[in-house]
Design a protein that fits this description.
Strand content: 25-35%
Distance between the termini: 63 Å
Number of helices: 17
Shape: globular
Radius of gyration: 26 Å
């Protein structure tokens, strides 16, 4: 009903008072944002998009004072995972009051403050930008907490229908780990809020998205280079790590009194302290701390700031499992050059089919020729793996797999709709992404279309019915082992999905999230599925069933590589904690996150262990994660290619407050 009312208003309002902005995901249409100036300083907006059956749909209204600061806000609708949201804010009688599904508060209005909704349409970023431009010193206190500032970056002049139009680029700090960009036109209207993944833009500028994103990238690159210079310590000569307890992933042993000599980017000697010379070298005194290879996250999708979050958490190698085909390659090149902080990246390219539920990628294939061309493009651009997605036609899977294998690429993915995991593997897959597809293999007769939310809901409803000792589970497990199939479980995702409270802090990050900038904190909710009435026990039992399955697969010898598909860095540490909770020995978990991951990606000659000849990618931990995985939250030094990083300084640059219990290292 609200959508109909908005459309009527759009039809009768003047163009200056109403507009309809397209939502674009990876260059493809995904939804709309309707914005209507109702009366005075009152605005109505509806924002919705479809991302494979998921996506926000919210209807918001707000009113501004003369300074452009909200004095009233309300929103209803659903979040990305379709859970209901409702939120209100009001400034009246000298008080600020707000309430959402996860919080409520009240504060005396002693100074102008801008309320940042937990759920808001992209247009609200423009509202904040305009208020900041009016504010003294271009800064405002935020509610419920924090402070925002705005700076202007390089503008862009476009030519539309023979007329020059100038769009101004602004960067807002205080909303995220990194500045958020918003574009305003000469009238001060919100021209666009753009990322390489999802963009909302005035329709008249839609053809200029790439131009605007390129301009944004130049601005963010300059900032990234400055931060990289400030936070990267390059030893003048050799580097020696002295008096460490060295972890060996091969056998899980820990050897005290060990030194490591690094020349340039490689390790040249490892041995007892007395046998490793340190004359003229820079020395890091490990003081008996735990030294191990850098961690791997085998399932990421890199965006701004993710590389810094990785290094702060000890992730020196990662696998990107789907990204755009333009800016992503440039980002990886910057990681490699050291002009942006981030890990070494193994590139996996996504291929999907066509249709409404296809994934957000330009690499969509409908024919055999399309499939071969997509594989060739990825192979020609240095990718090492193809990720087949849910809408690929089953008959194209073996064609993609054969073409990829002919070019030396691995093949993995979501099991496409109308296939079982067993059929996917028989068609040529080497690996499965996400543990839910193991469960869906046994539900293939009833859950045929896995492009939508059923791939999550069906597992929630039936996971507890599957026991690792069932004959059909044992048979499939043996099948996976026989075919040397690798599993990338991303089990942390399912803990969040099935935790039962969409408004709760992301499970496993309860101790980390309070350290984040206030606006980030409020977004770090679980995104759990709404539990149907009467199904509470069924959903509650789903995740323990997944842990049992993970342990059973590991015990049977199925290769497992840890990945997150969620918050960079910190989520990996929790992913590893979940493996320990499942009953896998901590030393074995560390092996998965180091040596096993390097082997699967084919780079174990350079990475995965601390040994002579290997790249100097290491982390120093104040604790013993081979006995207790949680000690990985106490990383004091990260080394990538012989360059030294202080996690606490990286966190500070991201606006993350220090961990009180963390002891700092020295070098």
């Amino acid at each position: 009903m609200v959508r109909v009312a908005l459309l009527v208003l759009l039809a009768i309002a003047t163009p200056a008072l109403a507009r309809e902005d397209p939502v674009v995901m990876m260059g493809l249409p995904a939804g709309k944002q309707l914005v209507v100036q109702a009366s005075g300083n009152s605005v109505r907006a509806e924002y919705s998009y479809n991302d494979r059956g998921r996506g926000d749909h919210i209807e918001a209204t707000w009113k501004l004072d003369a300074a452009g600061i909200p004095i009233a806000y309300s929103v209803r609708g659903n979040d990305y995972m379709k859970a209901a949201v409702a939120e209100t804010f009001a400034a009246s009688q000298g008080r600020y009051t707000w309430k959402s599904r996860s919080e409520q508060g009240e504060l005396a209005a002693t100074q102008p403050a801008f309320y940042v909704p937990a759920n808001a349409p992209p247009e609200f970023t423009g509202v904040l930008a305009r208020a900041l431009l009016k504010a003294p010193e271009r800064k405002l206190a935020l509610l419920p907490g924090g402070e925002a500032r705005i700076e202007e970056s390089t503008p862009v002049t476009l030519t539309l229908n023979g007329t020059s139009v100038k769009l101004r680029q602004y960067q807002i700090t205080g909303l995220d780990f990194v500045p958020q960009t918003v574009w305003l036109d000469d009238a001060g209207e919100t021209a666009g809020v753009l990322t390489g993944w999802l963009s909302v833009i005035m329709s008249r500028y839609q053809g200029s998205i790439d131009t605007l994103i390129n301009a944004q990238t130049q601005a963010t690159d300059a900032r990234s280079q400055r931060i990289a210079r400030e936070l990267t310590h390059v030893p003048i000569g050799d580097l020696v790590i002295r008096n460490a307890r060295l972890f060996n992933p091969h056998d899980g042993s820990v050897t005290p009194g060990t030194s490591v000599l690094v020349k340039g980017e490689r390790i040249v000697r490892v041995g007892p302290d007395a046998n490793v010379p340190a004359r003229g070298a820079e020395v890091i005194d490990a003081a008996g701390r735990f030294l191990m290879p850098g961690l791997w996250d085998n399932h990421q999708h890199f965006g701004d700031g993710d590389g810094m979050l990785d290094l702060a958490s000890g992730v020196t190698s990662a696998r990107d499992m789907a990204n755009d085909t333009d800016g992503f390659l440039a980002r990886v090149a910057r990681f490699d050059a050291g002009t942006e902080l981030g890990p070494r990246v193994f590139k996996a390219g996504i291929i999907d089919g066509t249709g409404e539920l296809a994934g957000p990628t330009k690499m969509r294939v409908a024919t055999e020729a399309d499939a071969r061309n997509a594989v060739s493009w990825y192979a020609d651009h240095g990718y090492g793996q193809i990720k087949i997605y849910s809408s690929v036609a089953p008959e194209l899977v073996p064609i993609i797999a054969d073409a990829a294998h002919a070019r030396g690429l691995r093949v993995s993915g979501h099991v496409p709709a109308f296939m079982s995991a067993r059929q996917f593997i028989d068609a040529g897959a080497d690996e499965l992404q996400h543990l839910n597809f193991v469960f869906l293999n046994f539900l293939a007769d009833t859950v045929k279309d896995t492009r939508n939310m059923q791939r999550f809901i069906a597992v929630a409803e039936h996971a507890r019915e599957l026991q690792p000792t069932d004959a059909r589970v044992l048979d499939f497990t043996a099948f996976l082992k026989r075919h040397d199939i690798v599993l990338d479980p991303t089990i942390n995702l399912f803990e969040s999905l099935y935790c039962g409270d969409p408004a709760a802090t992301t499970v496993g990050l309860e101790d980390i999230v309070p350290r984040f900038p206030p606006p980030v904190r409020r977004r770090m909710v679980s995104g759990a599925l709404a539990v149907p009435k009467g199904q509470e026990a069924v959903y509650r039992d789903a995740f323990p069933a997944m842990l049992r399955m993970l342990k059973s697969l590991h015990d049977a010898g199925v290769t497992i590589v840890p990945g997150t598909d969620s918050l960079s860095g910190y989520a990996l540490l929790h992913e590893l904690e979940l493996y320990e909770r499942a009953g896998i020995a901590p030393a074995e978990v560390l092996k998965m996150a180091t040596l096993t991951s390097a082997r699967v990606s084919g780079v174990d000659s350079d990475r995965g262990t601390v040994a002579a000849g290997k790249l100097a990618d290491m982390i120093l931990v104040d604790g013993d994660p081979s006995q207790r995985i949680a000690d990985l939250h106490r990383i004091v030094t990260v080394i990538k290619g012989g360059k030294v990083f202080d996690p606490a300084r990286i966190e500070a640059a991201l606006g993350i407050t220090p961990a009180r219990s963390l002891h700092t290292g020295s070098h």
